[in-house]
Hints:
D-amino Acid Aminotransferase, Chain A, domain 2, single chain, D-amino Acid Aminotransferase, Chain A, domain 1, BCAT_family, 26% strand
Amino acid sequence: MKKKNLDWSNLGFEYIQTDKRYVSNYKDGKWDDGSLTSDANVVLNECAGVFQYAQTVFEGLKAYTTEDGRIVTFRPDLNAERMMDSAKRLEMPAFPKDRFLDAVTQTVKANAAWVPPFGSGATLYVRPYMLGSSPVIGVSPAKEYQFRILTTPVGPYFKGGAKPITIKVSDFDRAAPNGTGHIKAGLNYAMSLHAIVTAHEEGYAENMYLDAATRTKVEETGGANFVFVTKDKKIVTPKSSSILPSITRRSLLYVAKEYLGLETEEREVPLEEVPEFSECGLCGTAAVVSPVGKIVDHGKEICFASGMDEMGPVLKQLYDTLTGIQMGRIEAPKGWIHVIE
Ligand SMILES: *Cc1c(COP(=O)(O)O)cnc(C)c1O
């Protein structure tokens, strides 16, 4: 198979239309067989549930080429399960796990020419999503749904090294207790746009959101979970029912314990405690770990010992081990690497 002629290492994170996408429709209480299509446009009734009341959920994972030339995805079973949880919370039908895995495999295979070569640092971003497709005007769940998967090649997250970022403690809330913070719903992102645009205007790369009820505990950023390192090298991640359960975070905790022999703690993290940590990072599919050098809390600066030049040593070790597992340099736990071809 001949790869597309793209400047892989210089791609950004922008939509590039690829050849095929997957579509399955839900009607009269069941999903149809699903198929690949070349049509990148979605044509729906003007009153579709997704347009009127934002009934839509999504997932994000990447397909990439390992050192030995295989095209793989990382723990897609967890994306399938999380999407089922997200759908349930928005009164949408679950797309079955085996169907999800098959659909990811079919879509990536059909776009194999768009999967960046090993060593480029680029990946094929895979975006499964589901939306209410039938007309809804009185507030209620739609009766019909569409599940789709699109793919788009994206460049290396860090061009020229992982430079620590500066973030701010936000005055906006991302998620309410007992709300939808724990599911991957478009609505969580719509309401975070004003907060992130404001943060960018003020010169910050990201927002640190606190728990909405007491505004004293660390939750997450708009699209990544926090991971902290204590002075005695313990890995700490915030625990809350309104945090999105990041697959990267869960994988990092496993790697810390089982590969690096580090102690891990998943617990509430008071903002007050944050200055005591020696390293701070954000974790998610896109960057795996992205280092935070400084957090600004209403004029008060929290500067981590790891500084503003490079990722701290413990996070670096975690990052190297997890990306090593992903790329096939380090033996993966059973079931983590899903081979496409
Ligand atoms: C997707 C997402 C993450 C990261 O999850 P991964 O599974 O690691 O990619 C973190 N926070 C939010 C709000 C998200 O939507």
